[in-house]
Amino acid sequence: MQHRFSQKDVAAALKVTFQQLQKYERGLNQVSPTKLLKLSEMFRVPVGYFFEQKQNRNSKRAPPDFTGENFDRYTITLLEAFEKVKNPHLRKAIAALARSIAQSKAI
Fold first, then answer.
1. Dihedral sign (CA 8, 14, 20, 21)
2. 52 falls within a domain
3. Is 33 within the bounds of a domain?
4. Which of 52, 64, 66, 81 has its CA 20 to 30 A from that of 72?
5. Is pTM beyond 0.70 here?
6. Which SS3 state, helix, strand or coil, does residue 57 take?
7. Is residue 30 part of a domain?
8. What is the tens place of the pLDDT at every residue in 30-77?
9. d(C-alpha 84, C-alpha 32), whole Å
């Protein structure tokens, strides 16, 4: 609504059904990285925009900007591989591992 797109418009742009879009909005299904990138381009916002509400509100750091120009080849490779993992438990474990590595003091 904020960007003047109807749910039908967004669903068509993502090439999903209206019902599937509603499942994304309610958090019943996960949005693939490819579709997330499409949404960020459509709404002209960085991918991090979609994660702002889950971030700690006291944090002064801006969410990462994952717009198309900022993807390096490693990020693209990682996203493409991650998108192929369909098991939700494995996806959760991979995300937890990546988060743990990113927060590690060894970096």
1. negative
2. no
3. no
4. 52
5. no
6. coil
7. no
8. 888 888 888 888 888 887 777 765 544 445 555 555 555 566 778 777
9. 9
**Residue length, the chain?**
107
Distance of alpha carbon 22 from alpha carbon 69, whole angstroms: 29
Mean pLDDT, range 81-106, rounded to an integer: 84
**Token reading at 12:** 């068509």
3-state secondary structure 10-39: HHHHHCCCHHHHHHHHHCCCCCCHHHHHHH
DSSP secondary structure of 73-89:
HHHHHHHHHHHH---HH
Q: Count H helices, E strands: the chain?
A: 5, 0
Per the structure, the count of domains in the chain is 1
Residue 86 domain boundaries: 72-107
Calculate mean pLDDT across residues 3-32.
87
User: Is there a contact between 38 and 46 (Cβ–Cβ < 8 Å)?
Assistant: no
Distance CA 62, CA 91 (A): 25
Indicate the DSSP class of residue 3.
T
pLDDT of residue 71: 67
